[in-house]
């Protein structure tokens, strides 16, 4: 039997009624003759609540226990989905990550899937089971501890199952009807894309467009998974949603295809560090060991042998970063006069494969922000993206004015 992977995000399983609705969709695919692997997220808001409980209990928590707590939301929805399907007369059972097993690295709270042996589930399909409901977002480490795959990780579970079972398609059901030129909740002018290239989706995701987890796009690209994003609230149709596919298959030929933002950025500056060979290694080594995801970096011009070093990282890692740098300072590895954290910033990015061949994107971006009176704090570029760090209060204004400036509301 051909296998289909269907993933339902938090809002699509937020209540028992919605689980029923999702289960009906699964039933339709079973009726078409598919063996279906359903990947479920926790009910919306549940994972945030669990993360909150962990932080309240232990601010610099043991990541293994964080995973034990935070993975539990998916267990509930997996069981409820299996029960709902059984009530409909569809042979189904639930699987937690460790039962499959979804084998991951031991990088707790940000583990990577290494292998999904298909035998256990395939055997059950052979015995007449029609739907395997798998708890997304979780796996098991080589030591046998429960791991999680980073926020939004159920998308990655879905794509990894599609690759492991050579699925005909991987459908990601969410609360919007596809991938848009920017977050439709921020810009009413956002336009739905029928197709988007893996490369652009990868950049948009890694720059904050949480509609797909970055790693899921990476995996889909590597294993050639047919990946579709669609709404669980609209009538089923074959043309629905957005197809994430190879570059050649996309139609758009404009310099910028989308605007992404990341709200939870922090800018940290080490004031007056010695400008000597090895200083960057001495700063960023301890940060990496502490698990801080450093993104943008700028080193100012040195004055009398001393310089300022600025970097950005997620807001919730500021405490870890401060601790790591203070310890490096106290042990004499680095020496700075002050450490300043600005937690009121956000990152706005313009993404497009057209940037490879069309110039002027940076100029348009900077002029647009300047016309709105928005000060740029840090800039970073790559072949197909330009990102800026700005004050968080300007997030909506910046996204909307850039969406206008790059004329993204008009059809391609
Ligand atoms: P789920 O719980 O189904 O995984 P998420 O909240 O993780 O859903 O992702 C869907 C959300 O992603 C949408 O509600 C939307 O606000 C946001 N989003 C951000 N950027 C985009 C974009 N470019 N296109 C579509 N949605 C986007
Ligand atoms: N429930 C997890 C989260 O909120 C995983 C997911 O929804 O993809 O991050
Ligand atoms: Mg998600």
Automatic annotation (TrEMBL):
Signal peptide: none annotated. Its EC number is 2.7.2.4. The keyword Nucleotide-binding applies. ATP binds at residues 7-10, 174-175, 180, 185, 210-211. Gene3D superfamilies: Acetylglutamate kinase-like, VC0802-like. Belongs to the aspartokinase family. This is Aspartokinase.
